């Protein structure tokens, strides 16, 4: 993606995950909104967007943040919402270990409280260390926790996997966290 498309992608993340009211759109209970209406409202906001560009952003976003429905007339963010929606994902058994990338400055707080969803609907987990490292790098020097996901699942925690492969859960208590060198 070029710089303009990256900026549009970031703006779409804002309106499809956190603040749809910014441009006057509404998300349905599953986070979907009409594509034509989205394009119109984004353009009214002063950002140039057409269907071809939107399709390119959805197809090439490295994190696969957005998804079209089967008929390509509705769009939503794949996960990461702070607005209340039901993504419709079903509980799935995770792998034995998942990973959470953060910055070194957040490690002590996480060791005190565990992983909390805070203003989002879920805690985001990765299935590989490399992805977790990339996530952690966004916030400073990266640090990766191992999450004992299978043990959590066996203890009746629910896990979901988003359309773009991000594992989601409500929270991760401290006892299920291991520092990556443990």
From TrEMBL:
InterPro entries on file: Ptrans_KptA/Tpt1, RNA_2'-PTrans_C, RNA_2'-PTrans_KptA, RNA_2'-PTrans_N
SUPFAM superfamilies (UniProt xref): ADP-ribosylation
Major enzyme class: transferase
GO molecular function: NAD+ poly-ADP-ribosyltransferase activity; tRNA 2'-phosphotransferase activity
Alphabetically ordered keywords of this record: NAD, Transferase
BP GO terms, sorted: tRNA splicing, via endonucleolytic cleavage and ligation
UniProt-listed Enzyme Commission number(s): 2.7.1.-
Role description: Removes the 2'-phosphate from RNA via an intermediate in which the phosphate is ADP-ribosylated by NAD followed by a presumed transesterification to release the RNA and generate ADP-ribose 1''-2''-cyclic phosphate (APPR>P). May function as an ADP-ribosylase.
Family designation: Belongs to the KptA/TPT1 family.
Record-linked NCBIfam families: PRK00819.1-4 (NF002014)
HAMAP family given in the database record: KptA
Listed name of the protein: Probable RNA 2'-phosphotransferase
Annotated source species: Sphingobacterium puteale
